[in-house]
Amino acid sequence: MANPQLASQLKIRLDEDQLTNCMRCGFCLPACPTFRETGVEAESPRGRIALMKAVADGLMEPDEAFEEQMNHCLGCRACEPACPADVKYGRLLEQARDAIEDHTRRHRLWVKGVRRLVFKELFPKQSRMRLAGKALHAYRVFGLQRLARRTGALKLLPRQLADMERILPAGSGRGVVERIGERHPAKGEKIATVGLFRGCLMDTLFTETNVHTVELLTEAGFEVVIPKTQNCCGALHAHSGEAEGARDLARRNIRAFKEAGVDFIVSNAGGCGAILVEYDHLLHEDSDDREDAAWFAERVKDVSELIVRYGRVPSFGPPESESGEERAASGSERTGAADAPLRITYQDSCHLRNVMRSSEAPRTLMRRVEGVEFVEMFEADRCCGSAGIYNLTQPEMANRILEHKMEHANATQAHYLLTSNPGCLLQMKLGVERHAAGSGMRVLHIVDFLHERMKRDYQSTV
Ligand code: SF4
Ligand code: SF4
What we know:
Elements: H1 4-13, H2 16-21, H3 33-38, H4 45-56, H5 64-72, H6 89-102, H7 109-122, H8 126-141, H9 144-151, H10 159-167, H11 176-180, E1 183-184, E2 192-197, H12 200-205, H13 207-219, E3 222-225, H14 235-239, H15 243-260, E4 264-267, H16 270-276, H17 279-282, H18 290-297, E5 300-302, H19 303-310, E6 315-316, H20 324-329, E7 342-346, H21 350-354, H22 360-367, E8 372-374, H23 390-393, H24 395-411, E9 416-419, H25 422-435, E10 442-445, H26 446-452, E11 454-455
Parallel strand pairs: 2-3, 2-4, 4-5, 7-8, 7-9, 9-10
Antiparallel strand pairs: 1-3, 6-11
Helix pairs in contact: 1-6, 10-25, 13-26, 19-22, 24-25
The structure holds iron/sulfur cluster (2 copies).
């Protein structure tokens, strides 16, 4: 069915320069997970750009198939580093999704429900995120989860949601500031003051990782401040066509970190870091905020990058609690000889790699850990299928991608699979549960792994 409003909005919003910059060379095709899975041109970056251009030029109606292609894209942006013409594909995708979101009524009912809950009711409101954390904690700790499983109540959920329920962490109603306070001095001579971007998902589901990030940073010589008035980064909003919501959150975060007077803004979640580093673009049309947004964007660093480039890298060694004998006694299929080194591998966060352009720093840190063998996973740079809420809204493609990812993860025979983003972490846990059960492979955030192995030169105060 024709949708003239959507057609005219796409003509207005899509960046003509970016559309015409694409010279149809196809260098991006091998980098694109959806093209690799399907072999279909329309499922590739070049194909999607051609569709956008055809709509912008009035040669095609933005029909259901067009919308589907925009929604099938993971938004992983692996096509951008591969592009010799520097086409900003991510921006085009956001512009297309923004228009679709404003002018379509075709979402499935439960997808609409999830979107409303995530974008409007939950993520922008810290108090509700805390409440959700408390509810999750109660669900896991007070026997409700066991009850839900025993009674079969989980069968009422769509399969993907039911599967996610199995791998959710315990959650917490107390975030990093409630746990350890707002300001933390550097150990030894201070190098700089950094503001920790705590993240809403990180601080609700992985509070411990945020606490560990503070300890890692102070050990590396940074004073850490955690501004209390910071908010959700807006990444899920921006990638899902909720641009105005994302801009509003960006303004609030810029204010919070400016007032804290920090030298750097540090993120431990690739998905958050990638939007934070693009706040200058997000607010480029807003003359009141443009300067502050540029100030903010140029200070954003991933935690591994900050430590490797500017910090005193702590020493890392095996923790007391993990000897080869214990691994051998654990019943894991991947034990090996008692004196064999621990094998670790790493799944890149797409946004950390393709937008923040940081892939070497985490590997540098992993290679610095004594007694550990780092094994590079084949296609570690390829999306795991998590992609924000993609694994919930496009479960079929997400599951295909995950299955292939786990073939490569299993081939490493690693004891630990590390990541730098909460979405990837949950997706890889799901992958291990489905495709590597019994292998003993543990999935951890890189910060938690390093923290466990950090040799403290100074007495920790947090
Ligand atoms: S963002 Fe990822 S899935 Fe989308 S076109 Fe680019 S490479 Fe393909
Ligand atoms: S690599 Fe860049 S220029 Fe070439 S087809 Fe892909 S997006 Fe277009």
